[in-house]
Amino acid sequence: MKNVRVFFKKDFECRYISHLDLVRIITRAIQRSELNIWHTQGYNSRIYLTFSLPLSLGIRSDCENFDIRLTDDAFDISDIPDMLNPFLPHGVKILSVSLPKYPYSQIDSALYQFKISSDDISNLELYSLLSRFIKKPEILVEKKTKRGMRTIDIAPSITEIKIEDFNDNDEDVVFSANLPAGSAENINPFLLINAISDFCNAEIYADITRKNIMMQGGAKFE
Questions:
Q1: What dotted CATH number matches 2-100?
Q2: What is the pLDDT of residue 95?
């Protein structure tokens, strides 16, 4: 038996599929593909399928992944995308397959791209306000914890935040941010959008894409 890591994209309408429904979609595709997958032992046997970092509802991603375990060590894993993609909905696409290099516990952060706009202020105003916002030494947000809602400062946890090229004709203001992700600390990207909305005193619309999952030090998770 050998473990295999499958990387896939989640986009279009499928970004609104919950993680639980995504698991069902992937499971059904695996069953229809007739891959020789190892099943867990016990009374309720099921396909061995684990995901590294569940994605929040409404967010796109170019770097999602899950692990499966094959019972045939000689199987050519490069065939997996062609076996699974025909059974997946538009918006979920297998990109590549490899043998796992690192355990999920090594995940430290995720890089997100944000495309934001507002009906309340112009994009030029939004760009100007965002330029001031990212220089703030403190970013206070309300976050739900095991002890209830509490105010936390997320600024120290954001290792990088920068605005990409912008001009008056752009439909959106585009910026990227590297946020904590994984078992130790996790910041939902929408918390950052809420903080920007409060700072701008305007309702902000955001199209968010997870571009990369990284380990401590910035190395790509593979």
A1: 3.30.70.580
A2: 97
**Which pLDDT does position 41 carry in this prediction?**
79
For the record, the structure tokens of 71 come out as 């019972």
Tokens representing residue 106 in the block? 């090594």
Predicted confidence at residue 165, as pLDDT, reads 75
The two domains 2-100 and 107-215 share their CATH topology (first three levels equal): no
**Residues of the chain whose pLDDT is less than 70?**
168
Q: Measured in whole angstroms, how far is the alpha carbon of residue 210 from the centre of its chain?
A: 4
Question: 21-24: which pairs have CB atoms within 8 A and are 24 or more residues apart?
Answer: 22/92, 23/49, 23/51
Domain boundaries, the chain: 2-100, 107-215
Dump pLDDT digits (tens) for 48-68.
899 999 999 999 999 999 999
User: What's this model's pTM, rounded to 2 decimal places?
Assistant: 0.93
What CATH code is assigned to 107-215?
A: 3.30.2350.10
Residue linked to tokens 């297998």: 94
